[in-house]
Every structure is written in C-alpha cells, then in structure tokens.
Amino acid sequence: MNTKRLYTAMPAVACGLAPVPRDAIVHKKATGGVSSQLLKHEFLAKNLLIELEKKRNENEQLGLSVQKMAADTIKTMENDRKAVAMDIHDSIGGTLAAIKLFMELLMDHRSNNNSRLTVEDRMQIKQLIIHLNEAIDETKRICHQLGSRELEDFTLTVAVSKLIQRFNQFLPKIEVDYELNGFDDGVSDIVKTAIYRVVQEALNNVGKHSEANAAKIKLTGFYDRILLEVKDNGCGFDVHLLAMDHSNAGFGMCGMRDRIELCGGTFLVQSKPGKGTRLSAIIPIR
Question: In CATH, what number is assigned to the domain containing residue 224?
C-alpha cells in the first residue's frame, strides 16, 4: 500500500487540522491592510510633528534674533543721542555761555570806567543777554532730552516723574497730571528706554503743537504688559493728514510708533481738530 499517497489523500480532519474558512482568509488580508495603513499614517504624523517642532524652534530663534536686533537698534539710537548731546553741550552751549560772559564783563568794565554807554546801548545789551539766557536754557533742555542719565540712574517710574517735573518747570502754564504704578519690577532696559522716549516726545508735542493747557499721563502695569496713555485738551489734528506730514510733528509721531513696535507693542493715535489728542500704547514688559 502506498502510504505516501494515502496520507496525502487523507482529509484535513484526519490530520487534526480544522479547515480554514475562506472568509477568515479574506478578513486576515483586510486586517493586514488596515494595519499597514495605520502604520503609514502614524509614520506621517510623526514626521509632521517633527517638522512642526523644527519650525517652532526656527520661529523661536527668529524671534530672539528680532528682539536682539531691536535692542541693538535702540542702544545705537541712545548712543547717538548721547554723542549729539555732548557735542551740543561742549560746542554750542559753551559758545553761548562765553558770549554771555563777554557781554556781562563789557557792561561791568564800561560802568567801572565811566565809559560813555547810552541808555539805549545798555537796553540792547541787556536784551541780548536775555536772549542768550534763553538760548542757553534751551540748549540745556535739548541736552537733557538727548541724554539718558535719568534712565541709567533711576527706575522707570522715577525717571518719568522727573521728566514730567522738568516739563512743568519749562512750561508751567500747561498742567500735567500723571499716574504711574505697578510696572517697575521686571521691565527690560529696551522697554524702559522706549517708554521714556515716547513720553518725552509726547510731552514735546503737547508743549510745541497742541496749544493745550492740560495733559494727563497714565502708565499702568497689567500682568505682563504696560499700558501707556497720554492725552491733552489741545487743538487736535487730522490723523489721516499726519501720515503725509514730513515736519517734525509727523516725524516725531512716527518715531514713537517705531519705538513701541520695536518692543513688540502696539501704538494708537486718536485725534480730531478741536478735540484734543490721545496716544495709547500696549508694550510687553520683556
């Protein structure tokens, strides 16, 4: 008897093996296909997450680079202001002071020697000395504005307070009310400088262009932001026309906006002819 042939011919049950249904084979193939698809999607998802993380790191580095560039820009601007202030103080300021001294000595010399000096001459010389004093005071004011000694020596609150007090000394007819609170801790140098210069320029605009007799400055810390508001009761202006204004007023407003935006903040100007002006800014502390 051919056992090989017999064994081959035996049914599957005789060998102890259950027959595999056709639908089970199809199901197994389908399951394998689904697993393959899942693995493929999982692989794509992982790659996507890796790419997203890479882009996030690149954006962080770009943000740090922008912050450093902004800080370097403001630092350069401050150094330039210091250099100009020193030049004005040492050249123009010194020259004006020397002229004043010469005129005073001339008057004293002629008086002591009974030299003939008409009343008209004396009045003209006195008027000239008055103008020289005004020019010297203005030179000192400009040097103070260009310099940043207060920024270096004091907190932002104290520096802004002194800035407002000095403004009141030069322009006592304009009443400036101010409220400063809750933001000294943790303020970066770049933000401190930007806020100080914006308040300074805003006060300059109030004094030179607004025709106001009252102004209010408010600086408030709010979580990780500083809120700045400067408003006056002056003549106001057309905000749309200001964008086309290339005078000192328009240039100064653009400079304020640039400083705030360099710090990652937002700057808003609201004004109407005859309705006063309101400047507002929101600046991250860091």
Answer: 3.30.565.10
